[in-house]
Amino acid sequence: MIPFDFEYYRPETATEAVTLYTDLAGRGKNARYFGGGTEIISFCRLYQLYPHAVIDIKGIPELNTFEQKNGKLFIGAAKTLSQIQESNLFPLLNYCGGRVADHTIRNKITLGGNLCAMIPYRETSLALLVSEAELVIQNRKGKKILPISEIFHESLRLEDGDLLMGVHIREECLGAPFVCLKKTSDGNVGYPQDRVGYPVVSVAAMRADNKIQAAFSGVCIFPFRSRTVEEVFNKSNLPREEKIRQAVEVIPAAIHDDMISSAGYREFVLKSMMAEILERLE
Amino acid sequence: MRSMLREGFLELDVNGEHRKVVARPADTLLHVLRERLGLTGAKPSCKNGDCGACTVLVDGWPIKSCLMLAVEAEGHLITTVEGLKNTPIQKSFVDNFAFQCGYCTSGFLMNCHALAQIHPQASYATMREWLQSNLCRCTSYEEITQAMENVLLKT
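Structure tokens for the assembled complex are given below, as produced in the milestone run.
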């Protein structure tokens, strides 16, 4: 039970939503856009979040759309991870989104909610980083479309009041060869808990334009795609073992060490996943 | 634009009935079903989305009602275990002794019933993926899996 009150709004257009957000802010009210709301409800219940208002964006038709147009697939931010998985339009995103939480919760978690999550594991970001997706964002000034590399640095750097409308993915990425792996601290403990849990390491890698592109989560405190790691992966005339050694040296931050996994074990898992990426995509 | 600024009336479609109920905007669907509508089939347990004991169907899809606001459910069709009557999965649970204490059973039933309705030809892998969402501390998993498989095989 959430032990305090907040106001609930369900706008019908994106313009209405961003205007409302600004109006509420002008009245000193801290509002949150509310997609699946699983994280907001959990954090409110745990006294870690105190919004004055939530703006439920699921009633905005544009945010509930799959559309293929002009060589791109658009996925609305309010599409749930299960809807994305059932649609099977972008298999790499199915895999990345299909390992978040459990199946029933994925009926509620939205793509936008996962990308904007407060917890550090934003698994769908991996598929979008390697496919160089574009993000459609609406605010009071209008709509803008930005490459994810410009706005995702450790987390999604939205400005106050920005509403994530959805993502564009180039059609050539939809069927590109890929590798998607996740290891949890439980490993496979047997039904029903196999695969459920935060990752020790998870990776999404794709072969596009004859090059390997790879993104990681669990390794550091934030998910990342590193061009430097990719340069090492794509060097010719370098043995795989050496590529892995050099790639681990250039990851962008210290390997995370916490109760889920020690840094040493994470590095071991990371190296084994890198070996699998190279074996399958080289 | 729908707005709910304080405690007030909500209109919900539950088990084929139109219900009007007083709730706060911050009330979860689980709380309103149990404490306002007296539908205690959805069970409170972890209240954190981990255990699945509170699973209900929203437009036919399983949802953990502890992670949904009641006001979000307006305009959708809600089914609780009280809305299941002599379904194949209920009979299969009895035939396969797929419960012990029974606390998790309503959540499992809702999830299994949804799978049988949405993917009646579900593969074993799909069935396992769906069943990951619910926990049974009496560890009746083998019997639950068997009950689910038997329903799928008959469709």
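Chain B has two domains: 8-82, 84-153. The longest strand of chain B covers residues 8-14. Further analysis is deferred to the final report.
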